[in-house]
Amino acid sequence: GFCTNLLLSQSPGHILAQTNNKTEIPCELKKEHAGVYWYRWSQERQTFEFLMFSNLLGKATYGTNISQDKFSVHGTHSHTSYSLHISHLHASDNGTYYCSISQSSQLLLGSGTRLGVVDVLPLPPKATQAPLSKKPMRCVTKSKAAGKKGACSPLVWVPLATGVLILLLSLVPTAHRLHRLRRRLWLRIHRQ
Question: For the segment 23-66, what is each residue's pLDDT rounded down to a tens digit?
């Protein structure tokens, strides 16, 4: 069985990386273990896949059809901090990565780190840029959308949505005036 546990933690919860680059997914253990397992959940393929196991000596055992050139694990001398290194990133690498340890014939999973691979990383916001709105905005993008080629980034659709909203709000007074004018005409016609 699988279960999440406080014996290991994964942070950050989400990583955005660029196609053909590399990234690393950290995992912290509360105490030393014989080694760490790594799994990937693919939302698109609906599969939970065993990637690799790395023991205390750094010897790795890979899952079926897992490239040794693509995945590697690096650990510290304390054997409580590990990171999964993934190179040559592609859209097929999108998914949630879990580090895991074995204890009492159970696999204890970390909280998972969602990896999104995109062709172009969004630009960081400029410090001098004035906010569009004083209200805080929360943007949620789906990982599937991020994985597709040509998907709109928040840098494109947030200003676009704001522009559409302003346009719609500016039409309200015009529509109200037209409604009043139409009503006056209707009343004038019916009085005659």
Answer: 999 988 887 777 889 999 988 888 889 999 988 777 889 999 88
Q: In what helix (H) or strand (E) does residue 50 lie, and over which residues does it extend?
A: strand 47-55
Which pTM was predicted?
0.59
Whether the CB-CB separation of 25 and 84 falls below 8 Å is answered with yes
Encoding tokens for residue 110? 């970390």
Look up residue 176 and give its two tokens.
């109200």
Q: How far is CA 171 from CA 133, 166, 174, 180, 182, in A?
A: 20, 9, 5, 14, 16
141: left (phi over 0), alpha (psi -120 to 50) or beta: beta
- Phi/psi region, residue 105 (left: phi>0; alpha: psi -120 to 50; beta: rest), is left
Q: What is the pLDDT of residues 180-192, one digit of tens each?
A: 888 888 888 887 6
DSSP designation for 189: H
Beta bridge partners of 29: 8
Closest by CA to 117, choosing from 74, 139, 140, 148, is 148
